[in-house]
Design a protein that fits this description.
Largest sheet: 8 strands, parallel
Distance between the termini: 49 Å
CATH topology of one domain: Leucine-rich repeat, LRR (right-handed beta-alpha superhelix)
Structural class: alpha/beta
Shape: globular
Helix content: 25-40%
Strand content: 5-15%
Number of helices: 17
Number of strands: 17
Strand order of the largest sheet: 8-9-10-13-14-15-16-17
CATH architecture of one domain: Alpha-Beta Horseshoe
Oligomer: single chain
């Protein structure tokens, strides 16, 4: 279908709707516009609003006619499928400042991904693309990667393809692109069955790339082989830094592995023209939840963190629900946890948040970590829920954390700690002035035990405001406890999109019939990204729509950036 044919189809449909329904605004998306006064650009948030193929084409035609500058387009959960790519391609072709595109939770499929890949071959503005939950499959990701490879001017920094039925070949293709392209800083591939074959490829790509900000392979069916590949990658990165320091990047030092030399060569060819070698690797998060590594794999990962600690300094690591890291068959094995403890206690350790929830580490695991917890220099948040911990762990934690001056939050909910163990933690709160939260909800406390009463009678100096416990006599349901215990883990969504969703929609104060020609330019808020000037308008009319002049300028909101920041609560 040519460019003019969609326009005629849309115009014909609009004419039909207008007959007897002059006020009908089915194709008016103005209520979905958000205006950012700081960046002076618009966001179009259409999430949850079903979009047909014709509506998408119509939107493209209207945006093109009005020349509206939109830097954020959210069409997630709109039943958007491969047929809508026709309209989207027109938007991408005519709008050269669109930086953020969210198409998550739709029905693109392999065909839609292949069509979108054609758009990526020439686009130079997109920096964030979200394709999560779209069933694009392995072939779809390979097509997208090939589209990016053919575009030397691509600005894409964040690509989210999690939960898309992608297998190892897709991960390998993505890894090859990561190895040679320093622009892409985050590729979220979690919840895809890539296995160790795909996981090793991603890990090896990290060894060639000094720009990756997150490793997110949660629930990817990876195991010890991937952990060993991550160990080698961290060693390679540390060796590259040492070679740069010595001024001999072309040759590996005596202690560096052969792979370090190959990594250095690949890096220099990929980024010599685009960026300088960073003094510290930007890696922030390592997310490996719900995978199958054993104590051997955890030990390899910890060794890699130790060897690369001077250069690779992640602040967050999640091993949540990695149920085999403290087991060797049916027997406990804490070799990996001991090595992790060595890393945590190092002076140049960097971890601020560590999630070991649901890992079945039991009391033996806490004993293995005790030495590290006494003086971990950076650790502030430790999550240990659902680990079958008993009163023994409660007592060991009290002894270990007496001298700790950094840890602020520890999650112990849904373990096997009873009344006696809770009293140990209450005593800890009288000895440690830094801890601000100990979560002990859903532990088997007796109905006759009240922590507040025990504290008043036995340990009045304890700060009970820091103890989060469940009073069964108050009728708190398990669902309420579960809901209040949820925390947000790593999220690659740029702040720009998250903030745009919260902005109020533009509400025109002048009717459709009003003409903008009689209004002075001072009455219209203007958006001037780059060299283009634009004004708020109603997409379903031919005239601009003015807003009432504001007597006093509103205070500017907090500056919005494209950088994602993993958050916890």
């Amino acid at each position: 279908m040519s460019t003019t044919e969609p326009e005629k189809a849309v115009q014909k449909e609009v004419e039909i709707k207008k007959e007897g329904e002059e006020e009908q605004e089915a194709d008016d998306f103005s209520d979905c516009l958000r205006y950012n006064v700081e960046t002076q650009t618009y966001s179009l948030i259409l999430r949850w609003r079903p979009l047909s193929q014709l509506e998408m084409i119509g939107l493209a035609v209207q945006l093109s006619k009005k020349g509206l500058i939109i830097d954020t387009l959210d069409i997630g959960q709109t039943n958007f499928d491969s047929r809508g790519i026709v309209g989207l391609s027109n938007i991408l072709r005519t709008n050269q400042v669109l930086a953020n595109l969210d198409m998550g939770h739709n029905e693109l499929g392999v065909v839609g991904a292949q069509r979108f890949a054609e758009c990526l071959k020439s686009n130079t503005s997109l920096e964030y693309v979200n394709l999560e939950w779209n069933k694009i499959g392995t072939d779809g990701l390979i097509a997208i990667v090939n589209g990016l490879k053919s575009n030397a001017k691509s600005s894409l920094k964040i690509l989210d393809v999690h939960c898309n039925q992608i297998e190892a070949p897709g991960a390998i293709a993505l890894a090859e692109y990561l190895s040679t392209n320093p622009e892409l800083t985050n590729a979220n591939i979690r919840f895809n069955p890539i296995g160790d074959r795909g996981g090793k490829a991603i890990a090896e790509a990290l060894g060639h790339n000094t720009h990756i900000e997150a490793i997110d392979m949660a629930r990817c069916q990876i195991g010890d082989e991937t952990m060993e590949a991550l160990r080698d990658a961290f060693k390679s990165l540390a060796a590259m830094k040492e070679n740069r320091r010595l001024g001999s990047s072309s040759s590996a030092s005596a202690s560096a592995s052969a792979s370090a030399s190959a990594s250095s060569t690949a890096l220099s060819s990929a980024s010599s023209d685009k960026s300088e070698f960073p003094s510290e690797h930007p890696l922030v998060a390592i997310m490996l939840e719900s995978n199958d590594m054993t104590p051997k794999g955890l030990k390899a990962l910890a060794v890699g963190l130790i060897d690369g600690a001077d250069y690779v300094r992640p602040t967050q690591m999640s091993l949540h629900a990695a149920k085999f890291i403290a087991k060797m068959g049916p027997e406990p094995c804490v070799d990996g946890l001991k090595m992790l403890g060595v890393y945590l206690s190092m002076k140049n350790s960097s971890l601020v948040t560590l999630d070991l929830g649901g890992c079945n580490i039991e009391d033996a695991g806490i004993i293995a970590l005790m030495g590290a917890l006494e003086a971990a220099p950076t650790l502030e948040n430790l999550y240990l829920e659902k680990n079958k911990l008993t009163n023994i762990s409660a007592e060991n934690l009290r002894d270990a954390l007496k001298t700790n001056k950094m840890l602020k939050e520890i999650d112990l909910h849904q373990n096997r700690i009873t009344d006696e163990g809770i009293t140990k933690l209450i005593v800890l709160l009288s000895e440690n002035a830094v801890l601000r939260l100990i979560d002990v909800r859903r532990n088997p406390l007796s109905t006759r035990f009240n922590p507040q009463t025990w504290r008043n009678e036995n340990c009045p100096k304890a700060r009970m405001t820091a103890l989060l416990w469940e009073d069964r006599r108050e009728g708190i349901s398990s669902e309420e406890v579960e809901e209040s215990s949820k925390r947000t883990m790593f999220d690659p969504t740029p702040r720009k999109i998250a903030a745009a969703r919260e902005l109020p929609p533009l509400k025109p104060s002048i009717s459709k019939e009003a003409s903008s020609s009689s209004l002075s330019s001072s009455q219209l808020p203007r958006a001037t990204p780059k060299t283009t000037t634009q004004e708020p308008f109603n997409l379903s009319t031919s005239n601009f729509v003015a807003h009432e002049p504001v007597p006093k300028p509103k205070p500017k909101p907090e500056k919005l950036t494209l950088d994602w920041v993993p958050t916890y609560k």
